[in-house]
Design brief:
One of its GO terms (molecular function) is 5-formyltetrahydrofolate cyclo-ligase activity. It is an enzyme of class 6 (ligase). InterPro entries: FTHF_cligase, FTHF_cligase-like_sf, NagB/RpiA_transferase-like. ATP binds at residues 4-8, 126-134. Belongs to the 5-formyltetrahydrofolate cyclo-ligase family. By secondary structure, the protein is α/β, with parallel strands linked by helices. It has a single domain (4-180), classed as Rossmann fold, CATH 3.40.50. It contains 4 helices and 11 strands. It has helices at residues 4-16, 20-41, 59-64, 133-140; strands at residues 45-47, 69-78, 81-86, 90-92, 98-100, 112-115, 119-120, 126-127, 146-150, 171-174, 177-180. It has a 7-stranded mixed beta sheet with strand order 3-2-1-6-9-10-11, sandwiched between helices. A two-stranded antiparallel ribbon has the order 4-5. The radius of gyration is 15 Å and the shape is globular.
Length: 185
């Protein structure tokens, strides 16, 4: 069995190997699905992320809806892992990520939170880069905020090692569309 670090490196290399045109087309399709979701649910306050490396590019959705409030994460603390949230303008922050210049909210004041990841399973568990920022956030998030894991279809339906501190998302969004997940009560 691979270690988590090896698994992450494998997943990142797999995503990096996708042709740029394929990633761009998939990102456009994801933005179209996101547009329908937000219009159908009347969401106008969205927690998003700026693309890093070969990640999904949500910038077309942000550009298409300047009247919506887009909140982005900023690393507030690494120990414990904590994000703060703010709107544009963005600047280069820790690890080269684009982050809001001013981030005043520890819980994003949103209706929809888009969650990045390297891989997602069918129960909504994810594996990110291993620092725990989104797991810490998901553990504190009010139930009324819809949480959606966003990635390429090639990143979906894969096994994810789940630990007690891992929190699933409520839906998955890829170029194939939006899928709401069953929750166990």
């Amino acid at each position: 069995m691979e270690t988590k670090a090896e698994f992450r490196a494998h997943l990142k290399a797999r995503r990096d190997a996708m042709p740029e045109a394929t990633r761009a087309a998939a990102s456009e399709a994801i933005c179209a699905h996101l547009d329908r979701l937000c219009r159908n649910r009347r969401f106008t306050r969205i927690g998003a992320f700026w693309p890093f490396g070969s990640e999904i590019d949500l910038r077309p959705a942000v550009t298409a809806h300047p009247d919506w409030l887009w909140f982005f994460p900023r690393v507030a603390s690494t120990r414990p892992p904590r994000l703060a949230w703010g709107t544009e303008p963005l600047e280069k922050g820790q690890w080269g990520l684009m982050e809001p210049a001013l981030a005043l909210h520890f819980l994003p004041p949103v209706e929809l939170l888009l969650v990045p990841g390297l891989v997602f399973d069918d129960e909504g568990h994810r594996m990110g880069y291993g620092r725990g920022f989104y797991d810490a956030l998901l553990a504190q998030l009010p139930e009324e905020i819809l949480t959606v894991g966003v990635g390429f279809e090639a990143q979906m339906h894969l096994p994810v090692p789940v630990e007690p501190h891992d929190w699933p998302v409520q839906a998955l969004l890829s170029e194939a569309g939006l899928r709401f997940l069953e929750t166990e009560d």
